[in-house]
């Protein structure tokens, strides 16, 4: 479970990293869209931050992730300029591909193709179809 300190730092890093990737370093993506940051997890000592990127838009997600990993030092430096008044130490950034949205879309497609027959109707119900009240005592 993350402490409030970790949560605050993760939230700050997520907001500022998004701004860095979109505004400060758009040249890394060759004019394409910058990846969205889906989550940031910070270690208890605030020394490392695991950054999960959603690379759905565009193709070659592995290539885009490699570009980001190769330029991690430049990204960290740009981040340090943005948060120097707020944070004393800028954590080491470790980037990961977050494919949970693609997995959710795939599962939605799989569930949409299933042929599930409707449940049979139960003819034994009362006319007003109210569920029977459970008995609490023997005399009821």
Automatic annotation (TrEMBL):
SUPFAM superfamilies referenced in this protein's UniProt entry, alphabetically: Ribosome-binding factor A, RbfA
UniProt-annotated location(s): Cytoplasm
Keyword Cytoplasm: yes
Disordered: region residues: 114-140
The keyword Lipoprotein appears for this protein: no
Protein role: One of several proteins that assist in the late maturation steps of the functional core of the 30S ribosomal subunit. Associates with free 30S ribosomal subunits (but not with 30S subunits that are part of 70S ribosomes or polysomes). Required for efficient processing of 16S rRNA. May interact with the 5'-terminal helix region of 16S rRNA.
Protein name according to UniProt: Ribosome-binding factor A
Species name: Hymenobacter armeniacus
